[in-house]
Every structure is written in structure tokens, then in C-alpha cells.
Amino acid sequence: MKRLPALVLPILFAGCVGTETPADPAKSSPDAVAVPNPALSAPALAQTAPAPEPLAGRQWKLLQASDANGKRIAALFAQADRPLQVEFARGRMAVTNACNPLYGKYRRNGDVLELEALASTMKKCHDPERIALDLEVKQRLTGKLSSSLTGNDKPRMTLRNAAGDALVFLAAPIVPRRYTGTAQEIVLEVAAMTKRCNDPEIPDYQCLQVREVAPEKAGDAANGKDRSGDTGFDRFLNFYGDIEGYTHVPGVGSVLRIHRRKLADAPVGGPSSVYILDAVLETRPASAQAD
Prior knowledge:
Layout: H1 42-48, E1 58-66, E2 85-89, E3 92-96, E4 102-109, E5 112-115, E6 119-120, H2 128-140, E7 143-150, E8 156-160, E9 166-173, E10 179-190, E11 195-196, E12 206-213, H3 218-223, E13 237-239, E14 252-263, E15 273-285
Antiparallel strand pairs: 1-2, 1-9, 2-3, 3-4, 4-5, 4-6, 5-7, 7-8, 8-9, 10-12, 10-14, 11-12, 12-13, 14-15
């Protein structure tokens, strides 16, 4: 089985607070459980609701880059017609239009953007400048960076790292993805524990352990039967990126039904497909998962 491609981070937003009319206690059954009316807790919700994430919901394209001496960082513009592009969603950052898709976790603390070391797939590029581009991005977008946002109609984000490099990005609305062909339904088994991704540049980065299950073996996977030597199951492989709609819980394995969709306009160096969760067929703790 070939290694599954990396994923571009999904940009999904949803949020609503529904109201519910309390049931008449006199008509409730003896075993009924009272559900508080969310409207009655509105002040509390207002106090705890997180502030909107200003970086999410946009594609940030690299516009300018200079070092501490004001010199242009030409290495970050290896593809003049396809500038580096950054997206933020759910605490994850994705960089495309390099040699490989790069991704990692981020956290905002006021005007400080904390970036973990970026991970990447291991795709080979023939252009030496694009090969070097990955390393340039990893070196300059890591650690604590000061961030500033300017402009309303055309927002700009400026990031400054500890070395004094300044990277200016121009925001654009997220372009809806277009797919080609029909969705392919597959079954994936996700191991309970992640493992190191075997990338020497980011030795501590953890990857999901995933293997594709033959459709006729999906029941065995869900029931945790012994599968050693079974040709219907491949070995677990590193999975770079995310499965849309799925959140991994360390120590809990899962069997998932997935819709795999091919992108009609996949970014250069980015994934050609996305993996979208359709259903969770089974979950179980690590102790109950067969090898």
C-alpha cells in the first residue's frame, strides 16, 4: 500500500446556540432528566465564548519577505507565479506551494504566534530551488513570532521571527474546493497510538498510524479479530495530515468509513485528494486492538 498523501487543512466553521422550550414538569415522565434552557445561561455563554480567530477563513499568500538587514529573502519566492500560501484552522497551520505540503500546530497569545516545528511529506522535487524552499520555510516559520494585522478590505499579516525576518502575507477569501470524479468509499483503521513520523528535521512530530481495510474485512476490523497474516489488511503506515471530521483521541483506536475525493485544482506540492469522515464504525481502547 502506498503511503497516504498529506492533507490540506480543512477550513470549516459552524456555530449556533439553539433554544429549547422547557417541558411542563407536570407532563414529564418520572425518569425524565431536566435540560436547562440555553437562553437562561446566555450571560455565562457570552463570558466563555472564544473570540473569533482572525487568521482563519482566509488564504494568506506571501507578498514580501526580508531578513533583519532589510534584504529580500529570494529563496522564499522559488515559484514566482505560485507564492507560498498559509492557512489556519482549528489550531493547525498548513503551508502549500512549496516542494512538500507543510503543516503543524499553532497557538495565538495576543500578538504572539507560537508555531511548532513544521512537518512535511517526503515527496521528491526535481527543482533544487523548490527542494530548498521547504527548509527555508521550516527555519523561518517556527517558535514564537510577533504578528500584526493591518488593513480592513485587504488584510495583511506581518510575522517576525527571533532572527528578525519579516514575512508579509496578503489575505484572500478561502476558495471553495472543487472535486473531480465521484467519491471513493474506503475503510481505514486508525491505530490507538500515534508514532514518530521518521522525519529527521522534526524528530518528535507524531503521525496517525493508518491502514486501509478491504471492504469485506471491515466487520473483522470493527470487531477487533486477530488479523495477523491476513491479506485483507495492510500494515500501519504514517498518515500525514488530517481526516476531515475526525479527531484522534490518544489511546483509542477507530475503524472509519471514509470518502476519498480527488481535487480538481490541487496545489503544487499539495495533496491530490482529501479524506472526509463518513462514519465511525467502531472505537476501542488500545488494549482491545488487534495487531
